[in-house]
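Structure first, sequence second, as always.
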């Protein structure tokens, strides 16, 4: 609550345009290369004052609670070991640029899927 809700809001629908909403969108990152790592390497997650196991648990909970619809069928839950490895190289100044690149990849993927489904 202290580390996430202050920016993302209790319902994960940020009202601040600089803070991305999590509801109905966060699991989409799992569908593009680099997205899985991004969810743990963003500064607020990577530097949260909780253990790797707690971050893994929280991230898995966040995905299933706020965006279960977009979790890929191939999803494997985050583990403490994976989180520990990812937290060693957090995105500091590049988080926004990485997010923009991933959002573009998500948008491109959705556009391609929509075209495929309409044919």
């Amino acid at each position: 609550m202290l580390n996430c809700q202050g920016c993302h809001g209790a319902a994960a629908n940020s009202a601040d345009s600089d803070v991305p909403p999590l509801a109905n969108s966060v699991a989409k990152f799992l569908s593009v290369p680099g997205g899985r790592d991004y969810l743990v390497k963003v500064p607020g997650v990577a530097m949260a004052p909780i253990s790797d196991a707690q971050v893994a648990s929280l991230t898995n909970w966040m995905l299933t609670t706020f965006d279960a619809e977009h979790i890929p069928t191939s999803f494997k839950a985050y583990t403490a070991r994976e989180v520990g490895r990812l937290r060693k190289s957090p995105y500091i100044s590049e988080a926004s640029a990485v997010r923009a690149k991933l959002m573009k990849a998500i948008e491109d993927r959705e556009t391609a899927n929509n075209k495929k489904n309409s044919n």
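Margin note: The mean pLDDT is 85.
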